[in-house]
User: Which sequence fits this backbone?
């Protein structure tokens, strides 16, 4: 049988009738079973997926199938799908069943994607290693002693291990791009406001964004053009029309202006092989006729602290709803209102989530609000202004996605600050609200993959995807 790792390949097989959606789905279902040890899936939606696949096969016969016919896609476990469980990998939401579908799920189904299951992640999307899931870690398919990255670790490992064509993740500070780098796949965070967050379990609402994890840029473009665009249920979504990305990426690639941030490339925490790889890539691009220039970005050291002040503040407010009354887990030991709150939250949340709720409550407290939260907001504004200035002169910023390759389980567990610094190159795009992509271009001498990250100006996904395609296809 023909290869069908990607939607691209599957479409060919479907059109020459060498495969059917049902046969592709069955293949992935058995792959998931074989690769269970990775811990990528929390649940496989076998029944609803089989029904959908049969329905799409019927539609294909009459030429009525949607744009994503043949796509088998997984969801991060913080994306609601009506009648299916969603837990944000937390005990506090264990066994919670979605009462409605998120906009992204509605749109995927309307275009005939097959949703195969929900994937493990860090609890409430807080983490960089998937070690914070209440339901066990996710192993890196390239080396099972190492982490998959996080927080969309299950989604990413599932794509890397060929358990589905693609997955949706969410990215608040790098949770799509960082695991994409660690597992060797394409991971894209769109512009803040490009994709609806209706029906997504909120972490930090002014940062969160949904995006695709795929094996190729073409599939990312096909998915983004379906899930993106205006949504009456999410007022933060832009009304800008959504371009046909899958057509845009077929256009010829003109020469572009690329900036690289000196402080990133020279950062002492950056693996020397990754540094050399990015430097060589920049040289090659210059030789090919693109403009490549070094720029200063004086806020590198403030990115991570400001991120953790602002996101924990937002998280402490978003997670207040899990109180043992409205949603999810209620402690059997509770005996009055206060003990219901205290015991349900103490028993339902994991240690990292509790740490962040406390940190967030602290930075918002009366005595410290000005010192932390207000300052964090001001730093974010400076980052945004500086970023805007860069994009008035350049098309893209290129930098590594991660300071190193996937680390071993437990390597950063004792020191939260060390873990937070894993996000040093990814949080910039979330502060600024700009689109960013991690491309699986690098291969380290330790045998592990690593990503190269490209950031673009707001709503420039079409040119970002086109340039990414040209890079990946000429790698
Ligand atoms: N690692 C970051 C954090 O823990 C990013 C998480 C995310 O993007 N959801 O906050």
Assistant:
């Amino acid at each position: 049988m023909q290869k069908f790792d990607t939607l691209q390949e599957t479409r060919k097989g479907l059109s020459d009738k060498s495969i059917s959606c049902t046969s592709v789905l069955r293949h992935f279902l058995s792959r998931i079973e074989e690769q269970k040890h990775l811990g990528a899936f929390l649940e496989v939606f076998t029944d609803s997926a089989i029904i959908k696949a049969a329905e799409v096969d019927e539609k294909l016969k009459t030429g009525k199938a949607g744009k994503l016919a043949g796509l088998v896609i997984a969801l991060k476990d913080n994306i609601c799908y009506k009648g299916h469980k969603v837990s944000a990998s937390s005990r506090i939401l264990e066994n919670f069943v979605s009462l409605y579908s998120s906009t992204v799920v509605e749109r995927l189904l309307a275009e005939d994607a097959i949703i195969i299951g929900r994937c493990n992640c860090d609890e409430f999307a807080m983490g960089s290693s998937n070690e914070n899931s209440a339901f066990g870690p996710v192993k890196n398919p390239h080396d099972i002693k190492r982490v998959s990255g996080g927080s969309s670790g299950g989604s990413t490992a599932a794509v890397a291990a060929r358990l589905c064509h693609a997955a949706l993740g969410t990215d608040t500070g790098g949770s799509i791009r960082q695991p994409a780098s660690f597992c060797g796949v394409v991971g894209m965070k769109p512009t803040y406001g490009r994709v609806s967050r209706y029906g997504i379990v909120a972490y930090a609402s002014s940062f969160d964004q949904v995006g695709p994890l795929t094996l190729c840029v073409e599939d990312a473009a096909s998915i983004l053009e379906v899930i993106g665009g205006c949504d009456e249920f999410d007022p933060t979504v832009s009304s800008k029309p959504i371009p046909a990305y899958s057509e845009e990426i077929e256009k010829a690639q003109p020469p572009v202006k690329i900036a690289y941030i000196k402080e990133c490339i020279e950062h002492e925490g950056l693996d020397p092989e990754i540094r050399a790889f990015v430097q060589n890539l920049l040289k090659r691009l210059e030789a090919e006729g693109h403009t490549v220039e070094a720029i200063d970005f004086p806020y590198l050291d403030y990115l991570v602290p400001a991120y953790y002040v602002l996101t924990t503040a937002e998280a402490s407010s978003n997670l207040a709803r899990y109180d043992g009354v409205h949603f999810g887990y209620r402690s059997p030991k509770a005996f009055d209102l206060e003990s219901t709150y205290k015991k349900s939250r103490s028993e339902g949340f994991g240690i990292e989530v509790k740490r962040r709720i406390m940190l967030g409550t602290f930075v918002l407290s009366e005595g410290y609000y000005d010192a932390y939260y207000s300052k964090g907001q001001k730093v974010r504004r400076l980052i945004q202004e500086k970023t805007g200035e860069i994009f008035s002169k350049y098309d893209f910023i290129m930098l590594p996605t991660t300071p190193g390759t996937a680390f071993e389980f437990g390597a950063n567990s004792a020191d939260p600050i060390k873990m937070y610094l894993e996000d040093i190159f990814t949080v910039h795009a979330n502060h600024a609200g700009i689109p960013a992509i991690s491309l699986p271009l690098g291969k380290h001498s330790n045998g592990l993959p690593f990503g190269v990250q490209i950031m673009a100006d707001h709503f420039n996904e079409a040119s970002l995807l086109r340039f990414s395609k040209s890079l990946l296809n000429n790698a």
Observations:
- The domain at 7-248 is CATH 3.90.1300.10 (Amidase signature (AS) enzymes).
- The longest strand covers residues 436-443.
- The pocket of glutamine is lined by residues 125-128, 151, 170-175, 203, 311, 423 (CB under 6 Å).
- The mean pLDDT is 97.
